[in-house]
Amino acid sequence: MSTMLRINRDKCGYCGTCVAVCPEDALELIDAYLSLERECIACGICARACPLGALEVVHEE
Amino acid sequence: MKNNYDMLVIGGGPAGALAAKTAAEAGNSVCIIEKRPAIGTPVRCAEGVGKELLKQFIKPDPRWISAEIERARLIAPNGTTVSLEQDKAGNEVGYVLDRKIFDRELVWQAAEAGADVIVKTRATAPIMENGAVRGAKVLSVGTPAEIRADVVLAADGTEAQFARWAGLDTTVPLREMMSCAQYLLTDIDIDAGSTDFYLGNDIAPEGYLWVFPKGERTANVGIGISGRKSRDGARAKDYLDRFVAKNFPGGKTIECIAGGVPVCRPLPCTVADGLMVIGDAARVVDPLTGGGIGNAMFTGRLAARVASGCISTGNCSKEALMPYDTEWRASRMGAFLERNYKVKEYFITLDDAKLNTLADSIANISLKEFSVSALIRELIKRNPKMLFELKALKDALA
Ligand SMILES: Cc1cc2nc3c(=O)[nH]c(=O)nc-3n(C[C@H](O)[C@H](O)[C@H](O)COP(=O)(O)OP(=O)(O)OC[C@H]3O[C@@H](n4cnc5c(N)ncnc54)[C@H](O)[C@@H]3O)c2cc1C
Fold first, then answer.
1. Does residue A10 belong to the interface with chain B, where contact is any CB pair within 8 Å?
2. Which of B26, B70, B296, B332 could pair covalently with B308 via S-S, beta carbons 3.0-4.6 A apart?
3. Which pLDDT value is given to residue A4?
4. What does the pLDDT look like over B6-58, one tens digit per residue?
5. Which residues of A touch B44 (CB under 8 A)?
6. CB under 8 Å to A41, separation ≥6 — which residues?
7. B335 located within any domain
8. Which residue, among B187, B253, B244, has the nearest Cα to B217 in the 3D structure?
């Protein structure tokens, strides 16, 4: 089983709040969309901070 | 695209614009790069600013002022309203800006002073040589390029990745990130001369909810809550939707924005070899109010002044740039940041009952001065029974 971050681009307000709290500097705001650019440790801090609930740590088989 | 400048500015917000204007006026070649396709949009701001603060940087112009503010009201959880009136206080209150136009005006002025401006161009990495920043790798409308400069100013706002890539830790702790959402609502009943702040743990945990007028029946209605209080079903947007449904049920939403305001202490050091960090990227937002427009312009202008001297002597080392860091810390802004950080840390510990007690104690005051320190002095004076509790506040003022 692996954990990963799922970005819901329809919910995302591309505000960058998640970028600033990411301990791994994994996220990046590219113009009008958010992108996972570097390795994510699925800590979920960004998902907590998101004002709109656009981020989710999901567990996959 | 030119690929060599005296100064490269990453980010076209108020910090970057003031820096570029100041440096260009001093005769330097300057370039601002902005990753968005347009300066000033989307707006991530409630747009409130103090009149006196603003006037230090630019002459007020009706083209980018949405509303003039005469009073501020603090609304406690029990509904007690503390009204701070401009008429009673000696000083002026503020404006609500139209930042789409305001930010453009600032960049326009930088361009007029001679700075180059390039939009849809994102810094992707610093150019590092022997541990020093020498420019930036960029993607300009999808095409990679390198722009070299004697000094780079990181004015990239909340995200603050450029300084991070250059080795400064800009990460904001979750509890010190205000998670924000805001609607521009129209067709609502408001007091068009008042900025309203709603407090309380059910309204906005460890933050506040604001109604900032943008006209007779239009306002920025937004909220910031601490990141540690934010979770599914209890996010900034959830709190905001609840408030709007209750207070402005007929309101029409013409804009919906999200945003993050760092309310941590400033970066421990805002310079490195070939690099200066300004505005939100330096974490110089007022931690109590979340206001950062004025401080962004202040640090931008100061950094450019210091940098101009360093560029002309050919030395942009960390040591040479250090007077910028020392000066803003020693300034009024630096002192206010430290004081308001302590005041904020105290206020977030208060439960609703204590917030009500404090608000009730000052419900009928008329302050002679419109300021955080005047308000706190009044709170201390009127709550002798809470003297022990309020010690943290008293210490913050000292
Ligand atoms: C919801 C909310 C409400 C607020 N309300 C108020 C208020 O009422 N009053 C007040 O004074 N302050 C307020 N603030 C804070 C205020 O908006 C900021 O302090 C201010 O915008 C900081 O200016 P800046 O120039 O440092 O950064 P910004 O204005 O954020 O500008 C940074 C710029 O850098 C660009 N950028 C980022 N990364 C890169 C890159 N890699 N390459 C190129 N460009 C890049 C961004 O696109 C952005 O345009 C609020 C903030 C929020 C989120």
1. no
2. B26
3. 92
4. 999 999 999 999 999 999 999 999 999 999 999 999 999 999 999 999 999 99
5. 15
6. A23, A24, A26
7. no
8. B187
Q: Do B260 and A52 touch (CB under 8 A)?
A: no
Structural domains of chain A, with CATH:
2-60 (3.30.70.20)
Q: What is the pLDDT of residues B313-364, one digit of tens each?
A: 999 999 999 999 999 999 999 999 999 999 999 999 999 999 999 999 998 8
For residue B189 the two structure tokens come to 């009943």
- Cα B136 to Cα B223: distance, rounded to the nearest angstrom: 35
Residues of A in contact with B158 (CB under 8 A): 15-17, 19-20
What pLDDT was estimated at residue B385? 86
Q: Name the strand (E) or helix (H) holding B375.
A: helix B372-382
Chain-chain contact of A13 with B256 (C-beta, under 8 angstroms): yes
The count of structural domains within chain B is 3
> Cα of B159 to ligand 1 centre, how many Å?
9
Residue B55 included in any domain: no
Mark yes or no for CB contact B177/A13 under 8 Å. Answer: no
Question: Average of pLDDT values for B92-116?
Answer: 96
Q: Do residues B60 and B39 touch, judged by C-beta distance below 8 A?
A: no
On whether both B185 and B255 belong to a single domain, the answer is yes
User: Which residues on chain A are in Cβ contact (under 8 Å) with B258?
Assistant: 13, 15, 17, 50-52
Asked if B22 and B108 sit in the same domain, the reply is: yes
Q: Which domain holds residue B235?
A: 65-96+175-262
What pLDDT sits at residue B302? 98
Q: Which has the higher per-residue pLDDT, B277 or B378?
A: B277
As for ligand 1, residues whose beta carbon falls within 6 Å of it are B 10-16, 33-36, 44-49, 122-123, 155-159, 161-162, 180, 182, 222, 259-261, 279-281, 285, 290-294, 296
| Amino acid identity, position B75 | I
Dist CA B120 CA B309 (whole Å): 30
Residue B203 lies in a domain: yes
Q: In this complex, is the C-beta atom of B37 within 8 Å of any C-beta atom belonging to chain A?
A: yes
Q: 């996959």: which residue's tokens? A: A60
- Examine the domain organization and report whether B253 and B185 are in the same domain: yes
Residues across chain B? 398
Q: Quick one: B83 and B226 in the same domain?
A: yes
